[in-house]
Design a protein that fits this description.
The protein has 17 helices and 12 strands. It is of the alpha/beta class. It has 2 domains: 207 residues, 3-Layer(aba) Sandwich (Rossmann fold); 160 residues, Glycogen Phosphorylase B (Rossmann fold, 3-Layer(aba) Sandwich). α1 packs across α17 and α4 crosses α7. This is Glycosyltransferase.
Length: 381
């Protein structure tokens, strides 16, 4: 069986595809993986998957959107979510011609398409093969789907479609209690981290104190000069008699290490360090959230409130009792430290996170889902 895997626009979306892609390869199938932007090819190859270029190396996501004229950024979070669907749809359609050419040389039997990889359903419809929609986190994409459908109206009409094609299978990785009450039936799958790895140091997998708090604010620390913010967080958390671990890109690590001599900072495989943490502090990245939950770690979430996606995921997790949400305005270094202390002193947070970890562990493994995809393809032939 030949599987074409469309993995999205960011390293975290690439990482989400790794467990199922590996399960399919381990079952003897061929798997090829593409991304919406050229910069993701290194991430795809870096996690051991076969990367296929279907993008223009000269085009960044920003340039693609600028060239499209879709530059309006709504202030309302819901409207912005719909607009995001239009942005993703356009970025995906830019790759459509190259995807079509690739499938002339290597025709897939099934397409596994990430949540915003809207070229997947279009290509599957054109080829007459099934497509599988693969969730990346707990986010509900229905608002984005509306924007994407609007953006792709003419392309859908050319294929004789009134709307986005329905997937033959939808894979969801959220634990059942975190799924929306009106969510459609889906094939559930256990979340297993698929992030890229590194040569490990003992401090990455061994606590240096009774309590360890992990902090990450994404990959833009150096770009957005967030050193003072991170330094304040670390210095305030240090008053809790806790070891602090800061996961940052290697471009930012030297300055942080120089500012904070006793902090562990650098690029750390999250699946290695998360099991050693008592609390994770982050900006509501879906992959970070799910990795923490898979190991039963309660979280402090600081979502960008202008982003419906982040705010919605943070709210839903907080409602389970496994997290506390702080707005960017609330999230001073002092408040973050106080919130970490509250979580450490209140056993119900750890208990709620442990309950979600048990739900995740009980879901079907990627190997079992791979067998379902095999059956799906057999039935279509």
């Amino acid at each position: 069986m030949k599987v074409l895997n469309l993995a999205g626009v960011a390293p975290s979306t690439v990482f989400s595809h790794v467990p199922l892609a590996n399960a399919l390869r381990n079952a003897g199938h061929q798997v090829m993986t593409t991304a919406s932007v050229d910069s993701m090819l290194e991430s795809i190859a870096g996690v051991g998957l076969s990367a296929v270029r279907t993008t223009d190396p000269a085009l960044s996501p920003k340039q693609i959107i600028t060239d499209s004229g879709l530059t309006y950024v709504p202030e309302d979070p819901v409207e912005r979510e719909v607009m995001a669907g239009r942005w993703y749809a356009h970025m995906e359609y830019v790759t459509f011609g190259a995807l079509r050419e690739f499938t002339e040389d290597w025709r897939p039997d099934v397409i596994i398409s990430g949540v915003t990889s809207y070229a997947g359903p279009l290509l599957a419809a054109e080829l007459g093969i099934p497509y599988v929609r693969h969730a990346w986190d707990i986010h509900d994409p229905r608002l984005m789907d509306g924007g994407a459908e609007e953006q792709l109206r003419e392309q859908l009409k050319e294929l004789g479609l009134d709307g986005l094609p329905e997937p033959a299978m939808t894979i969801e990785i959220a634990p059942p209690s975190l799924r929306p009450k009106d969510a459609a039936p889906a094939q559930l799958m256990r979340w297993i981290p698929g992030n890229s790895q590194a040569v490990l140091e003992p401090w990455m997998y061994t606590k240096g104190a009774d309590t360890r708090i992990g902090v990450t604010v994404g990959t833009g620390v150096a770009t957005y000069n967030q050193y003072d913010f991170l330094q304040g967080i670390v210095e305030n958390i240090a008053t809790l008699d806790a070891e602090v671990l800061v996961a940052v890109g290697e471009d930012a690590a030297p300055e942080l290490r120089a500012r904070l001599e006793n902090v562990r900072a650098g690029w750390i495989p999250l699946d290695v360090v998360a099991p050693t943490c008592d609390v994770l502090v982050h900006q509501t990245g879906g992959s970070t959230m799910m990795t923490g939950l898979s190991f039963g770690v309660p979280q402090v979430l600081i979502p960008d409130t202008s982003m419906y996606r982040a705010a919605d995921m943070a709210r839903r997790l907080a409602e389970t009792g496994a997290a506390v949400v702080l707005s960017p305005e609330e999230a001073t270094s002092e408040v973050i430290a106080k919130t970490c202390r509250e979580i450490l002193d209140t056993p119900s947070f750890a208990a709620a996170a442990a309950g979600l970890a048990e739900e995740i562990a009980a879901l079907p493994a990627p190997a079992e889902v791979a067998q379902g995809i095999e059956r799906l393809v057999r039935e279509r032939h």
